[in-house]
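Researcher: Last one for today. Full complex below.
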Amino acid sequence: MKKEQLSLAIAVLLVLWYALSLWVKKPILPPPHKVLLVFLKEITGGMGRHLLWSFFRVFLSLTLGILTAAPLGVVLGQSRRLNQLLSPFIYLLYPIPKVVFVPLAILFFGLGELPKVLIIYLIIFFQILVLVRDQAQSLRPELILSVRSLGAGRRALFRFVYLPATLPAVFTAIRQSTGTAIAVLYLAELFGTRYGLGYYIYLSGSTLLDYPAMYAGIITMSLLGIGLYVGIDRLERKLCPWIVVEVTR
Amino acid sequence: MENFFVEVKGIDFAWKPHLPLFLNFWWHLKKGESWAIIGPSGCGKTTLLYLLSGLIRPQGGEVRIGGVKLERPRPDSALILQDFGLLPWRTVMENIALGLEVRSFYGPDGLHAPKRPLPEAPDALVDYWLKRLGLEAVADHYPSQISGGQRQRTAIGRALVLGPDLLLMDEPFSSLDAPTRESLEELTLKLQAERGLTVITVTHSIEEAAFLGRKILCLGHPPHREPVVVEGPPPKRDHPDFYKVCSKLRSILEEGRR
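Model: Here's the assembly. Have a good evening.
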């Protein structure tokens, strides 16, 4: 996508928003320039801290998800027996929308950070696990054999084959789950916290009735999602240059 | 007693639950020889190559190379497969360097890598083979971006950069067009003579077997008990013996089919 196209899309959306606000003419839909002013003021002020908390929660869940699900996925992809043993469980648990566990997690783990991070972690965990496992499974036996014939044992196979082969799957999994992760983050931040964008949006909208601030919060949360998405994309281009070649070929 | 380099001593092998491919099969060859193994698909020729590479082990008997019983892939043997052997996430240069990286990963432990010290200038070695095989221009390309012939030359470079004494090839050139195939066959013979390599090539092409094999092992219908060996012609396609050997191979293979 070109930068000009992106800027044009943003401009069109802002104009539509402005037109809509003129038509509705109510405080619940302030015009964009008013919201942008509040956004600029708040992002360096109170809202910045909320953003950091939300980012911290997503980042922590992502890191934990990658560190646990990726190696497990590789192991399952390599070991047919272990996969046969665990795949029925994965099959049952993977499609459950993890967001329904939010109340449960709060009941079990209280109102601290643990339940919030745990739920987002679960979403990311299963996504990475399934994609990495499938990727590791689909590696051609010829590939493994030829690297083994070069002297590679288990450790070298992991380092030279499984790790690079499954890295793109990790990125795809993260890209697919960021949207859901941010949505669940919002929900989780409605309960038992005074920090986080979810809390900020809800507080501004329904308690303080400060609608421009609420919209500023929504924009910030969207930017958090977009930022994660773009960041992952950049990182993938850097770490998996062969993927870009295959796509543009 | 003669000094054999590769010794297949009474091996039994079956991919269970299928019928056995080899039953008490004996076969020997000397250092520096160039062999071809020919036979129809499913005859077990690739299996024999895998047994020689140490990737699989016989259920009975043993394979010895250089007097040592084979228990696992031997560091001084190199294996080249028909296709898919290159890592798609590595450039041509990085693929050629792969074996050297695996070796420095383990160090000269005698198990994953030979006991001798690792090469002092691995980059220079990789450069040498890039040049030697005419791959400099595509050194930074990925396997998906280069031609089949270039891919196969990359695989040859990856094998020879490690300085092996035994080269095992499974249908190495069968997916290539005729001119590319012939030039790579000639290159193989040249490198074999130059490095004193022992080469074993598995192929289903009679013409390729005659060109690459100074001795040709014919495998008919399994199970194999006795090796059927044909003396190869001089490696010249216009030599009168070349076609004689080809038709001899053809009649042996057709007889095996009946």
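The first helix of chain A runs from residue 3 to 24. Chain A has a mean pLDDT of 91.
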